[in-house]
Fold this sequence. Notes:
This protein is an all-alpha fold. About 75% of the residues lie in helices and about 0% in strands. The chain has one domain (about 1-285): Farnesyl Diphosphate Synthase.
Amino acid sequence: MRYIIKRKGKQIRPMFVFLSAKMHGEINESSYRAASLVELLHTATLVHDDVVDESMQRRGFFSINAIWKNKIAVLVGDYLLSKGLLLSIEHNEFQQLHILSDAVRKMSEGELLQLEKSRSLNLDEQVYFDIIRQKTASLVASACGVGAFSTSQDLDTTRKMMEFGELVGMAFQIKDDLFDYGDAKIGKPTGNDIREKKLTLPLIYTINHADKTLKKRLIYILRNKNKEKSQVNFVIDTVKNMGGLDYANNKMLEFQRDAIKILHEFPENNVRNELESLVNYTIERKH
């Protein structure tokens, strides 16, 4: 637990909890518990993700499974998950528990869908959006939802904030996918998604717009040569040259604009402006 806490990330999701709460009332104990629950669940999923992906690194440090092996990592993830759920149950915050339990279900479904589609090399853009909506956007949506509910106690407001959070989460994941083609030190190797046969938006666009010969070569590399550095670099260069990064970047900006549009349905104040700044940070960040 100490190792995990020392290497905590940016904690963007708890920020969404607090700002969503503050926009609709005064932050209270329920808001703090909601933020804690979101971060506990998020950390649990990261620990489990590293086991699933057989990843040896997380945020530039050794992952839990790299140091203590898979058995300990799975149990640590389960422990974090149970602590989060108990936090809500002990304070009878069943609405928050419902929102976040639903997010965990969606995240698991998203991971399973991604594993299924990576075997057959999914080239469908809509399927990609379905995966990231469940896998990533659902937790950002729930963070905004539980934050808003902790102060407003209003389901309509909560739903609207969850809709906003989902759009932010979509933009957030596309930004993460773009990092795979950059040189920034972000705690995972460049080309990692290609090695894991994860078809992200830049690559899906490139394959779908390549001529028959190039398409065949790209698919062959992904299926058979995805561990070879020179071949991975060829895929990365092809994606860059064919406008895959520009296309994904424009899609990310679309989700950002739609999220801001929902945010602007609420009265303007300092908190709303801060929340807008946080949305902008999610797509302008360097890691």
